[in-house]
Amino acid sequence: MDRRTFVKASCLGSAGLFLGFDPNAPGQENVTLPEPPPIEVHGLPQAKHSPLGMPGLFPGRVVELSDPKSILRNRVSQPIVGRMIEQGMKELTGESSLRGAWSRFIEPIDVVGIKINPSGAPACCSSPEIVREIIGGLQSVGVPARNIIVYDRYGYEIDVGSYQALLPPGVFVVGIQDGFVDAAGYDPNVYCEANFFGEWETRSYMASIVAHRLTKIINVPTMKDHSASGVTGCLKNLGYGTFNNVARSHRAPYSFTDPLIGVMCSIEPLRSKAVLHIMDGMRQVWHGGPLTQVQDFIYQAGTLVLGTDPVAMDTVELEVIEKKRRKEGAPSVWDRDPKSITENYDAFFHDPSKNLFYRRPGHIAAAGKLGLGVADLKQIDHRRIAA
Amino acid sequence: MTQNAKPSVAETDWVTLLNDNARTGGQGIRPTHAPSKTRWQFRTGSSIRSAPILRNGILYVTCIAGSLHAIDVTSGRAKWKFPVAQQVHSTPSFYGDKVLFGCDDGKVYAVDCISGAKIWESSTGGEVWTSPVARSGVVFFGSADAQVYAVEAATGRGRWTQQLGGRIYSTAYAAEKQIYVGCGDGRVYSLDASSGKILWSTATGNGIDSSPAVVGDTIVIGSEDFYVYAMDANTGAVRWKYETGLGIASSPAVLSDLVVVGSKEGYLYALDIPTGQLRWKTRASDVITSPPVFGERVVCIQSGGTAAFDITTGTQVWRAGLGGAVQSVPVLAGDAIYVASLNGEVYGLE
Question: Within 13 Å and on the Cβ side, how many CA atoms surround B27?
């Protein structure tokens, strides 16, 4: 099967309108954002589509759990997040037991990747406590520790989160890439190609571990504002954590994260292997993401969001971040006011009215158009469970 | 309380993590000045996430691509390079004429410090990120397979192993009769040095990435539960604990009755060892995971550059842009400072 495909920008553009952004609304200073170039997609030829793949077993279903006691004085409670994951997994799947819930996604023969997000470590990253519970769930259905691989792009970011020390023995903790230009861990035959800004390397390659070694992926994103993409959630954690050379998609003040993030997530075998998303909202970043360490913009929400549909989950997350920004008097992530743009990183990190890019959260709706999930809030089965 | 096994140590030598087994970081014997220029720059070719060590004018540094480099500090040129099969995160240490370091292939290697030839290797069941520590002819190290190993320094032959409750990324402290080490299960362990038997263990609130320092009969160590702990070395009883703003991966440096340690929220904390009282705290960077080291009247830290702070007040004395790593430690060697960077560069600063 030839999976070489061109994704036309025209079918994915203007996604902001789909989610309610009106560039002509009063108070909005209009800028004309450049149209994204065509993106050539080259998936793994022998990859088979799985019904477990995105949007997965439960399209449009989002289970959100909140417990203020799950994070106290910035420490995540292991027993409480364990109970939240159990409750959430049962609600998501309709199974009566936790083991039964995990069995809907995972078989003992699987080699399972847990895609963490350590890029904001230590202030806001995938909580080791949640990763431990996921490892426990995988082991409960018979996956041996040696077939569990916790991974992300940069090993040095994983180091800062101390994941190596905090996870159970036998589990592998892998940083795919050790330098910014290191391509050793990537498959040269699986890539997407686009020339955004005249960059010298126009391809982004899929991590070999994803293309070849893993059979399933559990995605553990965080809930953050993102200076280029609006939010970083399921889709961005998966797409930009699986492919290399992704920073080229945004050059201040413009960003082509929309549509690149969704396009990357649609590429096989990534699409079929990502079977479950457990979004860590213990800590949430409402400004300065993804790397901020400024505690003023990080709040301890004590939330977990579970689902198989990354588009629906990110749509819910976008609403949460937007609501928080409104409450704090910060402009919308859809803001297009040129006066909000700064080249000063210090200003960006400390002033929530400033940003480095015109954010492009339309990548979520664009991913919906690619069939990865449901982007319309009215069609999302959003189940809220409070402690 | 320097306890390395080498009988005589030249003044500029820097023999293991934080200078010596007591983690003193070179206090009192190293005049330390703000670096004024770069004497040389050495490119290893891959990321460095460990700290260099120094002996007899040769700097030894491991890098992620899987190699140990020996660098002549006069010229900044390579003496030799010892390649291994997988990544290396372990800070090397010395025992006699051997350089010891761990590897992600699960082995600890002993390499001749002059020729770069392998003398022995010792296998474990998980990656070894810790720094091997030697005392009285025995090398001690922890592995990600949750075991502490004791092997003969001369041959690498195993003496004993001891299973703990979690992965071990904390470098052991070897006292005369006891080994102290932190563990991913959140406990601090004391092991009998001759048999490996667990003498006591004390729980903290989360896993431990930090390495212990010992002053008299007090152990000081950080935990991912945000606390710095002082424990009785004989019983494990907690004497005091001090809360910081985030987890602690940094290892404490001790000087007389002062301990300095970094927390991941970017602050350095100086605490009184007998009481646990705060003497000062200062913001050093956005993030600290590496250990501080003492120089003359200053404490140095590598994090977003290399900086020195007044030992009595915490006021910043100087800051250099080089050494942008959060996993390495500067080597203070008299009129020179050697720093390794995340991007793989090693600098000799004058």
Answer: 21
> Closest partner residue to B287 among A122, A155, A178, by Cβ?
A122
Of B89, B126, B209, the CB nearest to A169: B126
Quick one: pLDDT at residue B12?
A: 62
**Residue of B188, B213, B219 whose CA lies nearest to B20:** B213
Q: Which of A71, A72, A125, A160 to mutate to test the interface with B (most CBs of B within 10 A)?
A: A160
- When CB atoms are compared, the residue of B129, B144, B344 closest to A169 is B144
Torsion of CA B132, B303, B324, B114, to 10 degrees: -20
**Selected residue with higher pLDDT from A51 and B11:** A51
Contact B266 A293 (CB under 8 A): yes
> What φ, ψ does residue B291 adopt, rounded to 5°?
-80, 145
A180 has pLDDT over 70: no
Residues of B in contact with A170 (CB under 8 A): 126, 145
For chain B, the residues whose C-beta falls within 8 A of a C-beta of chain A are 46-47, 49, 64-65, 87, 89, 126, 129, 144-146, 166-170, 184, 205-209, 224-226, 245-247, 249, 264-266, 286-287, 289, 326-327, 342-344
What is the tens place of the pLDDT at every residue in B119-136?
999 999 999 999 999 999
Position B23 scores a pLDDT of 73
Per-residue pLDDT of A324-335, as tens digits, reads 999 999 999 999
Cis omega before residue A108 (within 30°)? no
Lowest-confidence range among A202-206, B37-41, B332-336?
Answer: B332-336
* Greatest C-alpha distance within chain B: 50
Q: Which two tokens stand for residue B12?
A: 């500029």
ipTM value, please give it: 0.91
Spell out a b/e string for A86-111, using b for 16 or more CB atoms within 10 Å of the CB, else e: ebbbbbbbeeeebeebbbbbbeeebb
Torsional sign, CA B60, B62, B63, B69: positive
Read off the pTM.
Answer: 0.93
